[in-house]
Write a structure and sequence with these properties.
Blueprint (H helix, E strand, L loop, with lengths): L17 H14 L4 H30 L2 H27 L12 E4 L1 H4 L9 E7 L5 H16 L4 E7 H10 L1 H8 L2 E5 L1 H16 L3 H19 L17 H15 L6 H4 L5 H25 L8 H10 L10 H29 L5 H4 L1 H5 L6 E4 L2 E7 L2 E4 L4 H4 L3 H11 L3 E2 L1 H9 L6 H4 L2 H12 L3 H11 L1 H5 L1 H5 L14 H17 L6 H7 L6 H11 L10 H12 L7 H12 L3 H8 L5 H11 L2 H18 L6 H18 L5 H17 L6 H9 L3 H6 L2 H16 L5 E7 L4 E9 L4 H11 L4 E8 L4 E9 L5 H19 L5 H9 L12 E5 L7 E8 L4 H11 L2 E11 L2 E10 L8 H17 L9
Parallel strand pairs: 2-3, 7-8
Antiparallel strand pairs: 1-2, 1-4, 5-6, 6-7, 9-10, 10-12, 11-12, 11-15, 13-14, 14-16, 15-16
Helix pairs in contact: 1-2, 1-3, 2-3, 2-5, 3-5, 3-12, 6-7, 6-8, 9-10, 10-14, 12-13, 12-14, 13-14, 18-21, 18-22, 22-25, 25-26, 25-27, 25-32, 26-32, 27-29, 27-32, 28-29, 30-33, 31-33, 32-33, 38-39, 38-40, 38-41, 41-42
């Protein structure tokens, strides 16, 4: 149960001179003899100063050698010495007992993470004070003297005081205490007392309980992963508790200590848990994760375990990563992080396989999937292949050399598992990983191997099987372009997962779209049934490849199309289908961009989009791909509004592609939308219903989803009956994590700017906006803002403040620039860099000039933009507001004050210059006239 640290102490430990500090403490004791309180305070002050200096040395060494494990050992050594000095001071100067009785014995023991002999800069210290019997006055005084001094030094200390008997009794009943004692490490005091605890623990607690302990630890791990985020590839991972983090390595070692009774990590090699290569991987993973964790603690100055965006770049620089063409330093660092996390997952699977072989735990606990598929334990040959067997409802190898004999088996094993609904035996996956060198050009060009791969991609559970192929390295070796984006992170707030994980999730959502039955994907599911049969495979390979060229200097859509043109013929696609795949990849962002940032009621928008998609079939494919892509970005990104925008764009464009713009078709769709609305309002009298429907323009009926239309109608009626000039309704979207404000007001040229300013002054960041005007001059705007509070009641109060501010500005009682400036001043700089862009053209509309603004999002940006545009003597006819993580993309349809387009190049240049300046300088715009 001793420390897992092996080898000599780090070189810089000599800087912490224990003998010198002990002598200084003795001198303080002599100086303050008879004044215990002064001695304690002086000792705490001395030790704190020494600790701060030692930590500064540790950080300097870490920045120089970048070796996190050594840093953790060095910090632990300093803490050990401080506790030994304190114990000596307490027993020699404060509570000296010249002839100690049998009860006046104590062992001071490190437990938990501190017991492992590794300590992060801001970690807690866990101590156990072991007594021979029950608590005595002497034992209580010594423990308190140590603890109070540690607290006075500003340290966080967890502690317990127990006898050996009590420790054993509690360890039997509490798995947390059992784990803590498993990791104890003797620090100072009575060594025989500690040895007794170790012997009793092994004999009375550990013996015969390995299965129970392993099951509890793996269940605890699963719960921890659930809390931290189930995916190993979340882009802001928890280094300690996340999947593939340090705690997973700790769990492995706890299990090894308990089951194999090892004391040091190198014993994992001796007892056959890992081979030499796997043990090196174990050490490499631990070293890397400790480097990251120590740097996070030092830089943040707190026990921060989440590798958030604002820390990632700084840690990347500290660890020596540099930028390469197409990849920032921070992206290269995070790719390395996710590869390490994957290795930790592989080591866990290896350990579980080893345990199962030795029947150290019940098989169903090893894997939830195995538990579901476990009717018998029979081993038998696969019906489709003599090279594989079914072992406990998992696919395994019939002989160790099946891959060497026929390398196609490296693909075949995954197809057979998928086809027969089998899980993967860890031993088989281990052998797959060791056989990756067999995936050469010959195998990549093998017709059967490529056929099997396409069967995997287009069959049930493709996402699950492809993920296993990715984790073993087969996918990245078989499709080398995919290997380049494995564990690649995109340094932005929009994407929640690494690039490879995003692509695999998109494949999963495409299968969900194809199955149908999910109200989220009604249009895409309907179109999936209507595409040409040969295009089904085209869609699947496009979905897998659409981001394959991320991280290259060239635009990833264009570079991805080139990858597809090289790869698809190998996978069996015809020249025509290969070109379709390439086109889809090249245009995979187009539909999303047009739907969210263009005026879909403007005929020119539709005609331009139709010119891009060229045919109804290609538009069907693009609609389905766009749906899967947005849904695969992360939770809350896909919503009913975006679904409705895609639906509107599709059905507005379809008649253009089938023989000219058809007003009849459009009129029919408006009529259908109004009929659906009527059906939801049977309680309204017909004249009232007719009057209400006529108040909305056609674009409203086409672009707004039915549930929102219903809410709008109730909202408008209730407030008009109450005589409210201004009304705000507050809604909460749990999935997107936003608060929605629906605002009803008399339309006003500056209304959007006023709403944006009021939101900014309340600290609310606008993430999207839906802006409509009724035929009788009322504005009906829905603004989605990021949440500030956890409780809906608090969010509701904030929304009411925004409403009061809008009313105050409209009535001339408030000056918005003043309150916005107060709220947005002194903001913390964000870690992202977004190149500001302003595009102005007259090709996207026949009536309006379209200004597209893209830059780093910030509170108050929409207010500043709308104010600046108005000050440039432009009228905003419509605005399309969207955010993609940290990037804001706002599009304004404008005219001059006479209602004409802006044609003069000098005027366009002045507008562009003013808006670029605003994006770069972050100035608060001047007040709009209310």
């Amino acid at each position: 149960m001793e420390s897992v640290v092996t080898g000599s102490r780090p070189d810089a430990d000599e800087r912490f001179d224990t003998a010198r500090i002990t002598a200084a403490v003795d001198a303080l004791a002599e100086k303050h003899a008879g004044r215990e309180d002064l001695f304690r305070a002086a000792m705490a002050q001395l030790l704190k100063a020494e600790m701060i200096e030692a930590r500064a040395v540790a950080q300097a060494v870490l920045l120089r050698d970048r070796h996190g494990r050594r840093c953790a050992e060095r910090l632990c050594f300093v803490q050990d010495e401080i506790i030994r000095i304190l114990f000596a001071a307490a027993t020699r100067h404060l509570y000296y007992s010249p002839i100690p009785s049998g009860a006046e014995r104590m062992a001071v023991v490190a437990t938990g993470g501190y017991g492992r002999g590794l300590m992060a800069p801001e970690s807690d210290i866990d101590l156990l004070f072991i007594l021979p019997y029950k608590q005595t006055a002497w034992g209580e005084q010594v423990a308190e003297a140590i603890l109070y001094c540690l607290w006075d030094m500003g340290l966080k200390v967890g502690h317990a005081t127990r006898s050996v008997d009590e420790s054993i009794r509690q360890a039997r009943g509490d798995m947390t205490i059992r784990t803590a004692i498993l990791e104890t490490r003797f620090l100072t005091g009575d060594r025989p007392l500690y040895d007794e605890l170790v012997a009793r623990f092994d004999k009375d607690v550990v013996q015969g309980t390995a299965a129970e302990f392993v099951a509890a630890k793996l269940a605890e791990r699963d719960e921890r992963h659930r809390r931290a985020g189930l995916s190993r590839y979340l882009v802001e991972p928890n280094v300690k508790d996340g999947k593939g983090g340090l705690r997973d390595l700790h769990t492995l070692f706890w299990i090894a200590k308990y089951v194999y009774r090892v004391r040091e990590t190198d014993e994992l090699l001796e007892c056959g848990v890992f081979d030499a290569q796997e043990y090196r991987t174990f050490r490499r993973c631990a070293d890397f994760l400790w480097s990251v964790r120590c740097n996070i603690h030092f830089f943040s100055g707190r026990a921060e375990e989440r590798l958030s965006f604002d820390l990632q770049r700084e840690i990347a620089v500290r660890l020596g990563y540099t930028s390469h063409p197409g990849m920032q330093d921070v992206e290269r660092f995070m790719k390395h992080y996710f590869l390490i996390a994957k290795d930790v997952g592989d080591l866990t699977a290896i350990m579980c396989a080893k345990l199962e072989d030795q029947q150290a735990k019940a098989a169903p606990v090893l894997s939830r999937m195995m538990a579901r598929l476990l009717p018998s334990t029979k081993r038998h040959r696969m019906p489709d292949s003599d090279d594989f067997i079914v072992d406990n409802n998992r696919i395994n190898l019939a002989a160790p050399d099946v891959f060497r004999q026929d390398p196609v088996n490296l693909i075949r094993i995954f197809r057979l598992a998928q086809k027969n609904n089998l899980a993967f035996h860890p031993d088989a996956m281990r052998t797959v990983t060791r056989s990756l060198k067999l995936i050469n050009t010959q195998l990549r060009e093998n017709r059967e191997a490529n056929l099997l791969f396409m069967e995997i991609l287009t069959s049930n559970d493709a996402e699950v099987v492809l993920r296993r192929m990715n984790e073993t390295g087969v996918l990245g070796n078989f499709i080398r372009a995919f290997g380049k984006i494995v564990s690649m992170m995109q340094f932005n707030m929009y994407h929640h997962y690494t690039v490879d994980e995003h692509l695999l999730r998109c494949v999963g959502f495409l299968q969900e779209i194809e199955r149908g039955g999910n109200d989220e994907f009604v249009v895409a599911s309907d179109l999936m049934r209507k595409i040409r049969p040969e295009h089904r495979a085209v869609l699947y390979i496009t979905t897998l490849l659409h981001d394959i060229a991320k991280g290259r200097p060239e635009d990833h859509s264009i570079a991805g199309a080139k990858v597809a043109r090289r790869l698809c013929p190998r996978l069996g696609f015809s020249t025509a289908d290969t070109e379709t795949v390439a086109w889809l990849i090249e245009q995979h962002l187009t539909m999303s961009t047009v739907a969210q940032s263009r005026d879909l009621s403007d005929r020119k928008t539709i005609e331009n989009f139709a010119a891009v998609v060229q045919s109804v079939e290609q538009m069907k494919l693009l609609t389905i791909l766009t749906t899967a892509d947005i849904r695969g970005v992360g939770p809350g990104v896909w919503n009913g509004w975006k679904a409705q925008l895609l639906r509107t764009l599709y059905y507005e464009t379809e008649p253009v592609l089938t023989g000219g713009f058809s007003e009849v078709n459009r009129a029919q769709r408006i009529a259908v939308a109004q009929s659906e609305f009527r059906a939801a309002f049977t309680e309204w009298p017909e004249p009232e219903l007719h009057s209400y429907i006529s108040r909305h323009y056609p674009a409203y009926w086409l672009k707004v989803e039915l549930p929102r239309k219903v809410r709008h109608a109730h909202f408008i009626k209730a407030n008009e009956q109450a005589g409210n000039k201004l009304a705000i309704n507050v809604g909460f979207d749990e999935v997107r994590g936003v608060t929605e404000l629906t605002i009803l007001a008399v339309d006003h040229p500056w209304l959007l700017s006023i709403i944006a300013g009021a939101c900014a002054s309340a600290g609310a960041n606008i993430v999207d906006a839906q802006i409509y005007t009724t035929t009788d001059g009322r504005a009906l705007d829905t603004i989605a803002i990021t949440r500030e509070y956890d409780r809906d009641e608090d969010e509701g109060r904030r929304a009411r403040r925004i409403g009061e501010m809008i009313e105050g500005v409209l009535e001339g009682k408030l000056r918005l620039p003043d309150v916005v400036a107060r709220r947005t001043s002194g903001r913390k700089a964000r870690p992202f860099v977004v190149e500001p862009e302003v595009t102005i053209n007259n090709q996207w509309s026949d009536r309006y000039t379209v200004i597209e603004v893209s830059g780093l999002d910030r509170p108050g940006l929409l207010y500043q933009l709308t104010t600046a545009i108005s000050k440039l003597n432009l009228n905003i006819a419509s605005a399309h507001v969207a955010t993609f993580g940290e990037r804001a993309r706002d599009v304004f349809y404008v005219t001059d004050l006479l209602g004409a387009q802006i044609n003069a190049p000098t005027r366009q240049a002045a507008i562009k210059s003013a808006l670029i300046h605003l994006l770069v300088t972050d100035d608060v715009a001047a007040q709009p006239a209310a």
